[in-house]
Amino acid sequence: MVWIIANWKDKMPLVAAHAWLSVVGSQLPVDPNLKITVCPDENCLKEVKKEVESKNYHISVGMQDLPVVDKDLAEITILGHSSRRQTGETNETVEQKVKQALQGEIIPLVCVQDENTPVPDKVKLIAYEPVFAIGTGNPDTPENANTVAKTLKQKYGESLEVLYGGSVNSHNVAEFISQENISGVLIGRASLDGQEFVRIINACQHLQM
Ligand code: PGA
């Protein structure tokens, strides 16, 4: 299975979120091999969830950080993103939030900067996001991302799913998800454009994993 996760950060106001859903919603494939997820910020999380449910769109809703522990609202939560670590989130706070998420039956997706960032116990889904690649248009090479992912799996167990994040777009996504140790992508900037997000999904689908 391949994860395709849109990380909107704080860049998607509610009006734009509705417009995005109206573009993307009807173009989402029913494909059991793809786990497509959108993570709005706290301000439009409820509204996005409501719309996805009422229109029956084939997309899961996740959240950023852990504003609430409510598995009916979000299936996953992005923890330890580098933007939060830069403003004071520590490995200890990430570990604490992982526990809260797991208790609430929410899947923690922990972002790591490299193979040395600690991954808390019981975490099964992580994203390798090198700081130099985030929002810069300068992604890591798929080969290096694969090597880091392999090291992380050797460290924490083969059942760990490792995503790659950092300047992913519709042109380079296929190369990342073709790597043996990479189970999907976490996408910031390119996910804000609905049509581009659909192109990313199509590029993954055509690989027929
Ligand atoms: P980017 O962001 O795709 O804009 O590089 C990735 C992220 O911050 O998760």
Can you tell me about this structure?
By secondary structure, the chain is α/β, with parallel strands linked by helices. Helices cover 34% and strands 19% of the residues. The chain contains seven helices and nine strands; from the N terminus they run βαβαβββααββαβαβα. It has helices spanning 14-24, 45-55, 82-86, 91-103, 142-156, 173-177, 194-205; strands at 2-7, 34-39, 60-61, 63-64, 76-79, 107-112, 125-128, 161-165, 184-187. The protein has a nine-stranded parallel beta sheet. Strand 2, helix 2 and strand 3 (60-61) form a beta-alpha-beta unit. The longest helix is centred in the C-terminal third of the chain and has 15 residues, at 142-156. It is globular, with a radius of gyration of 16 Å. Bound molecules: 2-phosphoglycolic acid (PGA). The site of 2-phosphoglycolic acid has 13 residues, from strand 9.
